[in-house]
Amino acid sequence: MSWQAYVDNLVGSGKVDKAAIFSRAGDSVWCTTSGFSVAPAEVLELAKGFDDPSPLQAGGLHIAGQKYFLLRADDRSIYGKHEQSGIIAVRTGQAIIVGHYPEGVQPGEATKVVEALGDYLINANY
């Protein structure tokens, strides 16, 4: 399966409207949905946040030009919220998966979908 197919499956769930997969180091984009442009500096900020969330706690999480209030950050998952939408990021052995859920989707429903893909890739040694 191509990386794009994973992103398409996230969006196809109806719980995520935009998604991307980046290298674990945050230095390359593996795939993204159309119109979901995450700046290289934002990807690096996110990648570093898994190991040291204090900058995200102090200044928020920035994805695709939007600032999100940090809800959770640990070495596996980072969650952010902006009004009624939000971001779920999951780090695997080789990748960072980012899913955006829109207004009208329950955060827990989107989280299940993104975290499940993370589990799958971790179990496949990605």
UniProtKB/TrEMBL annotation:
Key words, A-Z: Actin-binding, Cytoplasm, Cytoskeleton
GO molecular function, one term: actin monomer binding
Compartment list: Cytoplasm, Cytoskeleton
Entry keyword ATP-binding: no
Gene3D superfamilies, per the entry: Dynein light chain 2a, cytoplasmic (3.30.450.30)
Main subcellular location of this protein, as a coarse class: cytoplasm
Similarity comment: family membership: Belongs to the profilin family.
Protein name: Profilin
Organism of provenance: Yarrowia lipolytica (strain CLIB 122 / E 150) (Yeast)
